[in-house]
Q: What sequence folds into this?
């Protein structure tokens, strides 16, 4: 049933929305639009703009029909339109009983194609009653808007990503980022106080906080009024985990990963208590949490580097040469933010450049390519706990351990290897926070010292790690990784034997606290 | 960005002229281009005499020069359209080559300052690249930045940079379907970063605004991948994407770096995406085969020069891609022809 819209000359030019940004997962759109398996594509039409035929390609290996439309501009051409289906049979008629392979229909087909590829809607070539075109009423769930699109059947050898266009007036094009206030926990490790939360109040107040209090459990940590939180000190951790509490670091912010374990939410945002709200170059305060959510809710593109960075950001897109079959992206597991002011340098660099401040605001988010390792910083980090949570173990650091300040990096390397294996994405870049405290570089040097040497072994280890094909969950991947850590790094230092054991304990504790339903 | 002193004798700026009147293009770039030697190559299909304003130090090559060097056999590589610039690369003797499309003018950064794209490219090429580990603060060698905590010290000296890929404000290098879909989309975001594209990560290298170290990777920048209906708009080509992937494979193999990001140029409006799409969209389809091919390509360890890398790539293209489409067979032949030509011109 066609819903017709009143199109007048004062209608503002509609915007094209691409499906991957706006189609909800439980689409109320007709089934053909919802997956890449379909052979249907929808045609974008506006009263004032050209519409075009888009030819993305299928990632679906069940597609076997190799016919293609080779010439859409001329009336001839040897392409065929058949009634494509998921098992690749062609021939037969489409829903209207037209057999497009039939020569007698070739003219109709070519006209339909021509109409699709050129001209505004009022161009006489375009005929909305053309038998090739089927009007469909579609509702975009995120906005409730009704839209009209036209669909045409073409072979599923070239699968189409559908593109929707509004032909009604729309107030705001950019859908606002959902708050996710019931789906996200903010995890904050602290040993001092939480005064910094005051500055974050406008952005954090809607959310539940999980405070992990490190150090002396008898000390009372003041949480500013008005925040909804749960707080765990060392006694709580020991009580909840019993002997397994040995895997949670003491006297190191690595203890924060306990917060990930006890959370019941889908997303985690973690931030250090010396990180404040930064300003962007226009002077506007940056809502870091909102940007992390944007990053996590839009896909990643680890398989091919987009030179214009995150293609899903407003004002950007995939560049020429980017294969269409890769443009759906993969789910984003981690959003790694950056820091203005005090940069996250290691101790030697801090000692050499005590005055250096990061003043460069790089307005980009990008996916870290598959197969590439990076140094993850836990100061300003978001992740999808359901996708990757068990990999976010921050290791054995601090009191009684030979090393410190390698917690987040260890988690980052494990996480990256597992994300690469499972086909998940990690983004880095925006948002920025303002890092206010420079830690003592001499203290840092003592903590990092061993790490600086061990790292030279760790990096080749992680770069060459392979996980077995049948490891399909994060936990199985992580346990496999623990095995390999013991086997290959145990000889570097006995610490790694302990760490491998702790990794196993962590997974056991995780599974105990998070039984799968 | 850090101050690099540029030896002007080491630089050639190669301009492929696809339009006759280069006056406004060269005037816009005068403050930058006038300091360097230019190699201007006229598209052999472009009839007429180029208009070049005075005050530049340049060598001009036209169809007759190209024919003279390359010969007129049917096997000869075509230098028409955007490929004309490769002839300029062939003729150059300099260490660094910078090439910018003739429909691009200088950009301004977010503070409103004039962007000297040539200086930035040379900075990129003369500072190390870091392909083996990703630095989250991007280019660690630029002023005000460094390697972050967790970056292995043994990897901090970096490797030589072979290729520098710049970006574009205004008309970004989108393909025809994307631009047709979003006719108003313009790139207004100035991202103040240069980064090294990691080892074995492939990317689409646009030829619109690039620079390279000719001594290190020269032969890998080649005119090979022509589409049947290729024309004079970037929307109708993918030759630079093909070339760029060859260069990336070569750089990965030879342990050189490829950088992407700054500098920006301002790309002027030209052409109609829908018209281009109607005419030529095969490139979009071919990328589906091209990308996985290059991603899995590994060269034999004995191969040690850019020329030999190219020859080996050509052989694998012939073996694996050519059966699927004559475009690939032709590309492989062109690559081998190019290496021969490159060697011949060097020894003269």
A:
């Amino acid at each position: 049933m066609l819903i017709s819209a009143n199109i007048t000359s004062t209608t503002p030019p509609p915007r094209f929305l691409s499906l991957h940004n706006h189609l909800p997962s439980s689409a109320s759109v007709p089934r053909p639009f919802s997956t890449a398996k379909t052979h249907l594509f929808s045609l974008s039409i506006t009263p004032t703009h050209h519409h075009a035929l888009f030819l993305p390609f299928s990632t679906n290996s069940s597609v076997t029909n190799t016919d293609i439309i080779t010439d859409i501009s001329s009336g001839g051409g040897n392409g065929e339109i058949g009634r494509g289906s998921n098992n690749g049979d062609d021939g037969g008629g489409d829903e209207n009983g037209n057999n497009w392979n039939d020569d007698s229909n070739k003219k109709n087909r070519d006209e339909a194609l021509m109409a699709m590829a050129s001209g505004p809607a009022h161009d006489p070539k375009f005929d909305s009653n053309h038998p090739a075109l089927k009007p469909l009423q579609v509702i975009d769930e995120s906005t409730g808007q009704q839209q009209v699109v036209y669909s045409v059947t073409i072979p599923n050898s070239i699968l189409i990503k559908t593109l929707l266009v509004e032909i009604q007036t729309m107030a705001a094009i950019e859908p606002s980022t959902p708050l996710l206030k019931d789906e996200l926990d903010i995890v904050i490790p602290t040993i001092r106080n939480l005064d910094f939360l005051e500055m974050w109040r406008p952005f954090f107040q809607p959310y539940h906080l999980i405070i992990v209090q490190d150090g002396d459990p008898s000390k009372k940590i003041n949480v500013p009024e008005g925040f909804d939180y749960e707080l765990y000190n060392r006694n709580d951790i020991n009580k909840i985990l019993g002997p397994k509490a040995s895997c949670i670091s003491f006297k190191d912010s690595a203890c924060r990963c306990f917060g990930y374990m006890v959370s019941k939410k889908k997303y985690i945002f973690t931030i250090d208590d010396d990180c404040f709200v930064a300003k962007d170059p226009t002077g506007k305060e940056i809502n870091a949490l909102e940007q992390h959510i944007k990053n996590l809710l839009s896909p990643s593109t680890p398989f091919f580097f987009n030179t214009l960075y995150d293609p899903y950001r407003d004002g950007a897109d995939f560049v020429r040469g980017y294969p269409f079959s890769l443009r759906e992206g993969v789910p984003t597991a981690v959003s790694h933010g950056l820091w203005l002011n005090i940069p996250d340098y290691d101790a030697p660099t801090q000692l050499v450049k005590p005055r250096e401040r990061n003043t460069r605001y790089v307005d980009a988010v990008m996916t870290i390519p598959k197969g590439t390792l990076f140094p993850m910083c836990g100061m300003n980090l978001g992740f999808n706990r359901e996708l990757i949570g068990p990999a976010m173990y921050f290791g054995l650091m601090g009191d009684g351990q030979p090393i410190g300040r390698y917690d987040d990096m260890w988690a980052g390397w494990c996480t990256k290897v597992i994300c690469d294996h499972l086909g998940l994405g990690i983004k880095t870049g925006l948002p920025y926070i303002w890092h206010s405290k420079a830690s003592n570089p001499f203290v840092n040097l003592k903590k990092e010292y061993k790490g600086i040497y061990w790292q030279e072994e760790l990096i080749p280890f992680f770069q060459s790690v392979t996980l077995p094909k049948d490891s399909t969950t994060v936990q199985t991947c992580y346990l496999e990784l623990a095995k390999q850590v013991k086997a290959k790094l145990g000889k570097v230092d006995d610490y790694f034997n302990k760490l491998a054991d702790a990794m196993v304990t962590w997974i056991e504790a995780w599974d105990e606290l998070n039984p799968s339903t | 960005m850090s101050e690099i002193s540029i030896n002007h004798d080491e630089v050639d700026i190669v301009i492929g002229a696809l339009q006759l009147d280069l006056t406004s293009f060269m005037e816009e770039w005068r403050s930058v281009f006038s300091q360097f030697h230019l190699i201007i190559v006229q598209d052999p299909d472009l009839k007429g005499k180029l208009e070049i304003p005075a005050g530049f130090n340049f060598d001009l090559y036209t169809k007759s020069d190209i024919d003279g060097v390359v010969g007129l056999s049917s096997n000869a590589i075509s230098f028409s359209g955007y490929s004309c610039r490769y002839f300029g690369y062939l003729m150059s003797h300099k260490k660094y080559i910078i090439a910018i499309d003739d429909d691009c003018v200088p950009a301004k950064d977010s503070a409103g300052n004039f962007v000297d794209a040539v200086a930035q490219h040379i900075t990129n090429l003369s500072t190390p690249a870091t392909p083996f580990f990703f630095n989250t603060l991007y280019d660690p060698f630029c002023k005000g930045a460094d390697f972050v905590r967790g970056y292995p010290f043994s990897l901090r000296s970096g490797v030589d940079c072979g290729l520098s890929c710049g970006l574009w404000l205004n008309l970004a290098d989108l393909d025809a379907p994307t631009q047709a879909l979003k006719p108003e989309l313009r790139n207004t975001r100035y991202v103040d970063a240069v980064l090294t594209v990691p080892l074995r990560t492939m990317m689409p290298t646009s030829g619109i605004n690039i620079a390279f170290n000719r001594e290190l990777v020269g032969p890998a920048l080649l005119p090979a991948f022509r589409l049947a209906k290729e024309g004079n708009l970037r929307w109708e080509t993918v030759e630079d994407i093909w070339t760029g992937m060859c260069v990336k494979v070569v750089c990965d193999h030879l342990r050189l770096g490829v950088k992407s990001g700054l500098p920006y140029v301002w790309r002027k409006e030209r052409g109609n995406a829908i018209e281009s799409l109607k005419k030529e969209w095969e490139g979009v389809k071919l990328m589906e085969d091209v990308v996985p091919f290059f991603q899995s390509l590994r060269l034999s360890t004995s191969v040690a020069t850019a020329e030999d890398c190219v020859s080996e790539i050509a052989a694998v293209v012939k073996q694996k891609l050519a059966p699927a489409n004559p475009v690939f067979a032709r590309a492989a032949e062109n690559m081998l022809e190019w290496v021969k030509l490159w060697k011949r011109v060097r020894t003269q």
Notes: The CA atoms of residues 261 and 514 of chain A lie 8 Å apart.
